[in-house]
Amino acid sequence: MNYKKIESKKHPGTFMAVPIFDEEFTSHIHGDNQTGFCIACGAEQDGCEPDARKYECESCGENRVYGLEELLLMGFIITTPDNEGPGVS
């Protein structure tokens, strides 16, 4: 995934925003998928409840892994239509 660094006024610091296709997002939300994302390094991590907050990242060690639904509420999810984005022709 191509992550986008963003500055947040509400949450001090620089974070990774998670770009995700609409269909993939819907699949994560309605499935049994327990995926989280680290807003420090952008790593994807399994075993995170949708409302997970500040889990330890297996990649960078920071306590900045959040569940997908929590990231949506925080404004860190960027959805794009399935027919747009990198690698789509």
Walkthrough of the structure:
Helices cover 18% and strands 29% of the residues. It starts with a strand and ends in a 9-residue tail after the last strand. It has helices spanning 22-30, 68-74, and strands at residues 4-7, 14-21, 35-38, 44-46, 65-67, 77-80. The protein has one domain (4-80). A three-stranded mixed β-sheet has the order 1-2-6. Strands 4-3-5 form a three-stranded antiparallel β-sheet. The chain is of the alpha+beta class. Mean pLDDT is 74; it is low at 85-89. It is globular.
Computed over alpha carbons, the radius of gyration is 13 Å
Order of helices and strands: EEHEEEHE
Give the end-to-end Cα distance, rounded to a whole number of Å.
17 Å
Q: What class, by secondary structure content?
A: alpha+beta
Shape: globular
Q: What is the total number of structural domains?
A: 1
Largest β sheet strand count, sense and barrel closure: 3 strands, mixed
Helix content: 10-25%
Q: What portion of the residues fall into strands of 2 or more residues?
A: 25-35%
Strand order of the largest sheet: 1-2-6
Record the SSE blueprint.
Elements: E1 4-7, E2 14-21, H1 22-30, E3 35-38, E4 44-46, E5 65-67, H2 68-74, E6 77-80
TL;DR?
The protein is of the alpha+beta class.
Characteristic terms for this protein:
alpha+beta; globular; three-stranded mixed β-sheet; 2 helices; disordered C terminus; 89 residues; three-stranded antiparallel β-sheet; 29% strand
